[in-house]
């Protein structure tokens, strides 16, 4: 998978922003049908972790995840359907945990955001991390959090989880057996 160009990303984000409520519900319903475990992780588990810290950031997170679905769908086609592989999500967790362990071992935790934006975190030439999309999402989180001092302490945590979601979507769209 190639990193989205600025134009592709802009078009996909425009598509996401212009979806009406009825079509948004259809997209979410189809995503839940096609990827039930991933849906539960993204819209159940992750937001509940964030909500324990800050409810506003949890709501923003879910909105941004919807945009991620729309961006990938618009730029790369329909969300791949779930395959009969109950271990896919478990394998993704193991891969991501390995990546985060490497990050911690390299002492880069202090500057996680910059490492992500510079593409130094989880370098994978065959499966880019959609740096432009991550940068846009991080800027959205920064802007939203700046409106309330109570949100600010949770910026990096929210950005880290958003990065995980983007990585999961990359892996999903790169999975040869799901396409």
Characterise this structure.
The chain has helices at residues 6-17, 21-34, 36-53, 55-76, 88-105, 112-117, 131-145, 155-174. The protein has one domain. The protein is globular, with a radius of gyration of 16 Å. With 179 residues, the protein is mainly alpha-helical. The protein has eight helices and no strands.
Strand content: under 5%
Helical amount among residues, as a percent range?
A: 55-70%
Q: What is the helix tally?
A: 8
Distance between the termini: 13 Å
> What global shape is seen?
globular
Average pLDDT metric: 83
According to DSSP, the number of beta strands is 0
Order of helices and strands: HHHHHHHH
Write down the Rg: 16 Å
Largest sheet: none
Supply the number of structural domains. 1
Stretches where pLDDT is under 50 for at least 5 consecutive residues are 106-110, 117-122
The helix-and-strand class reads: mainly alpha
Outline:
The chain is mainly alpha-helical. The protein is 70% helix and 0% strand.
List the helices and strands and how they pair.
Blueprint: H1 6-17, H2 21-34, H3 36-53, H4 55-76, H5 88-105, H6 112-117, H7 131-145, H8 155-174
Helix pairs in contact: 1-4, 2-3, 3-4, 4-7, 4-8, 7-8
Which key features would you list for this structure?
179 residues, mainly alpha, 8 helices, 70% helix, 0% strand
């Amino acid at each position: 998978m190639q990193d989205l160009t600025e134009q592709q990303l802009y078009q996909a984000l425009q598509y996401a922003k212009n979806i009406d409520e009825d079509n948004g519900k259809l997209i979410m319903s189809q995503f839940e049908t096609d990827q039930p475990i991933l849906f539960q992780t993204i819209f159940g588990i992750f937001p509940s972790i964030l909500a324990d810290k800050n409810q506003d950031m949890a709501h923003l997170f879910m909105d941004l995840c919807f945009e991620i679905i729309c961006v990938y769908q618009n730029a790369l086609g329909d969300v791949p359907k779930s395959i009969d592989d109950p271990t896919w999500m478990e394998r993704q967790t193991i891969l991501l945990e390995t990546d985060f362990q490497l990050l911690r071992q390299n002492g880069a935790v202090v500057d996680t955001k910059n490492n992500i934006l510079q593409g130094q975190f989880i370098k994978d030439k065959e499966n880019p991390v959609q740096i432009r999309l991550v940068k846009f999402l991080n800027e959205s989180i920064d802007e939203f959090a700046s409106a309330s001092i109570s949100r600010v302490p949770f910026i990096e945590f929210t950005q880290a989880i958003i990065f995980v979601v983007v990585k999961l979507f990359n892996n999903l769209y790169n999975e040869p057996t799901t396409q």
